């Protein structure tokens, strides 16, 4: 990724948790100048960890961190988003700063109500594999965002994985349910495979290594293959074989419906979180 267009701009982070640290690390690795990055967090341990990533400016006070910001990334929990947004309002108005929010469920309207009505806002739903630069982020921009600001947002989030734009904000609830919460689904499935392997006589270490490597291999095949997932599954499923018997068991237990219900529950919770902030 070439982020040379960002290097003359100041990027500020409000919140110094894992996701902020990941994005900062990705930006530095891709060539962003450390002196053009600042971050605020009330916890000394978080600030110390950010300093370990690179020589960025760190602050306890949000307003200080965003004083000269052209782009402000809101990397805080939804529960404190209202207070955090109000703390940056003056800087957003003064600098015409782009605001990127990675808080699940918090709408553009709710953010904008605490900022200037003309504020340019991008909502982003990243996921935890961003910590390994293997994330997947959905992005939505309000009408106030320029093409340059959209490009800035995509460049920043591309530092930690792939990005996908959506046309309507409601689609972010589905992205939250799919990729935002998705890593936990795969972890749960791997846990279930490991437990089943142990029950069939494998040592835990052996079952764990095989399950995790199998998941990695399957994901790489899905990414790198020129055929769709259904065809990949068919190629592994020999008629009358062991895989076919397992797939038939999943189908009897309505695995697809179980996944659909779980994702619907996640999407509904994202909507509830927005109501709770409102």
TrEMBL record:
Catalytic activity: L-proline + NAD(+) = (S)-1-pyrroline-5-carboxylate + NADH + 2 H(+); L-proline + NADP(+) = (S)-1-pyrroline-5-carboxylate + NADPH + 2 H(+)
Stated name of the protein: Pyrroline-5-carboxylate reductase
InterPro entries: 6-PGluconate_DH-like_C_sf, NAD(P)-bd_dom_sf, P5C_Rdtase_cat_N, P5CR-like_CS, P5CR_dimer, Pyrroline-COOH_reductase
Keywords: Amino-acid biosynthesis, Cytoplasm, NADP, Oxidoreductase, Proline biosynthesis
A single MF term (Gene Ontology): pyrroline-5-carboxylate reductase activity
Compartmental location: Cytoplasm
Similarity section: Belongs to the pyrroline-5-carboxylate reductase family.
Domain Pyrroline-5-carboxylate reductase dimerisation intervals: 169-273
Gene responsible for this protein: proC
């Amino acid at each position: 990724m070439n982020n040379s267009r960002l290097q003359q701009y100041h990027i500020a982070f409000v919140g110094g948790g894992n996701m902020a640290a990941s994005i900062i690390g990705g930006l530095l690795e891709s060539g962003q100048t450390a002196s053009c990055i600042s971050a605020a967090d009330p916890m000394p341990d978080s600030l110390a960890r950010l300093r370990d990533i690179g020589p960025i400016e760190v602050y306890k006070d949000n307003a200080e961190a965003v004083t000269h910001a052209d782009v402000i990334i809101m990397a805080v929990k939804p529960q404190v988003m209202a207070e955090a947004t109000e703390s940056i309002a003056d800087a957003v108005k003064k600098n015409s700063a782009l605001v990127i929010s990675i808080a699940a469920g918090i709408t553009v309207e709710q953010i904008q109500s605490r900022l200037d009505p003309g504020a340019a806002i991008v909502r982003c739903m990243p996921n935890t594999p961003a910590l390994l630069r293997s994330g997947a982020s959905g992005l939505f921009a309000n009408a106030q965002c320029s093409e340059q600001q959209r490009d800035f947002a995509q460049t920043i989030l591309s530092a930690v994985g792939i990005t996908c734009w959506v046309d309507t904000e409601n689609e972010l609830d589905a992205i939250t349910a799919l990729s935002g919460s998705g890593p936990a689904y795969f972890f749960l499935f791997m846990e279930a495979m490991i437990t089943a392997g142990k029950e069939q006589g494998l040592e835990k270490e052996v079952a764990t290594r095989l399950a995790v490597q199998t998941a990695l291999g399957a994901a790489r095949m899905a990414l790198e293959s020129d055929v769709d997932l259904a065809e990949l599954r068919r190629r592994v499923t020999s008629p009358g074989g062991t895989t076919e018997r397992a797939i038939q068991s999943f189908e009897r237990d309505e695995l697809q419906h179980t996944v659909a219900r779980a994702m619907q529950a996640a999407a509904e919770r994202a909507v509830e979180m927005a109501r709770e902030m409102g």
